[in-house]
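In response to the reviewer comment on reproducibility (Comment 2.3), we provide here a single inverse folding case reported in full, input and output, so that an independent group could reproduce the run without further information from us. The structure tokens appear first.
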């Protein structure tokens, strides 16, 4: 039986997920719960239903008729989903004529993903791009990721793995010969703060970053810049010192937080605490960049 993985999106013509024009494959499932997460639909490993209430058609009850769990109701002309009863089967999304209900997450084989990627191979060759595996956390599905990386290597498609580092190093070691570049997310160095912001200790990802650097892995370190979370000067100095202490000097990309994905939380029926954060000011971003540059690190804003 062909190996399958859970994917929630494949974004074509991506230009911020590694060099050149890329196709980004988003793996479903993540061990972290970052308060500022831009892809909350990638956190759960299971299929979920997103509700776009404004698209619901007046008088339409097609989804109610097909839901095997009786998890749907209609109130004041809009669909309401009882997530405690929903099993994510997707029957409602298939029946919805207006896409007011959408299933996020689908099982795909290695071959099916490779077929999607291969369609854009000419763009990869012309731009120096390729495929990026992101999430969620791609190393939550390590065997599927390894098979995909091997298949891409066979088709001469360059690969990037975007990771939080929250996985056993043995999983990294198994893909090290197959990945052309790692985009490694560094949230914050202080362990207690990391735990409060992401729901997990950062001892494992920091150790993995150290070992990957020692093993000569091609790396770009990416730090999300989230005001009120990790942009205080002591936090930035600690992160810059850690980057400067690694066995190799790696490029650092600072990623200013933006609010473009806040609507996803509401569609997933989750806490909208994300709305409490504001994007950093240009002066704040430049201040952060200077802290890293002062350690002789190569800094890029965005990327």
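Designed residues, in position order:
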């Amino acid at each position: 039986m062909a190996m399958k993985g859970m994917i929630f999106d494949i974004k074509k013509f991506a230009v911020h997920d590694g060099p050149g024009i890329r196709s980004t494959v988003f793996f479903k499932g993540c061990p972290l719960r970052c308060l500022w997460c831009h892809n909350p639909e990638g956190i759960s490993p299971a299929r979920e239903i997103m509700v776009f209430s404004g698209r619901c058609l007046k008088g339409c009850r097609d989804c109610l008729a097909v839901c095997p769990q009786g998890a749907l109701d209609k109130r004041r002309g809009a669909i309401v989903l009882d997530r405690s009863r929903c099993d994510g089967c997707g029957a409602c999304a298939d029946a919805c004529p207006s896409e007011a209900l959408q299933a996020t997450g689908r099982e795909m084989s290695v071959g099916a993903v490779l077929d999607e990627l291969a369609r854009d191979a000419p763009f990869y060759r012309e731009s120096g791009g390729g495929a990026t595996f992101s999430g969620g956390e791609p190393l939550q599905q390590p065997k599927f990721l390894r098979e995909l990386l091997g298949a891409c290597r066979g088709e001469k498609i360059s690969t990037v793995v975007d990771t939080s580092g929250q996985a056993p190093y043995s999983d990294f070691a198994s893909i090290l010969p197959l990945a052309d570049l790692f985009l490694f997310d560094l949230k914050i160095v202080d362990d207690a703060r990391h735990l409060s912001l992401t729901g997990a200790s950062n001892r494992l990802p920091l150790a993995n970053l150290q070992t990957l650097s020692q093993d000569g892995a091609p790396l770009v370190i990416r730090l999300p810049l989230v005001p009120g979370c990790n942009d205080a000067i002591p936090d930035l100095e600690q992160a810059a010192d850690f980057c400067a202490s690694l066995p190799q000097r790696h490029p650092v990309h600072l990623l200013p937080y933006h609010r473009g994905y806040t609507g996803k939380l509401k569609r997933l029926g989750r806490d909208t605490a994300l709305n409490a954060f504001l994007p950093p000011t240009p002066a704040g971003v430049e201040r952060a960049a200077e802290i890293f540059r002062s350690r002789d690190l190569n800094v890029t804003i965005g990327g």
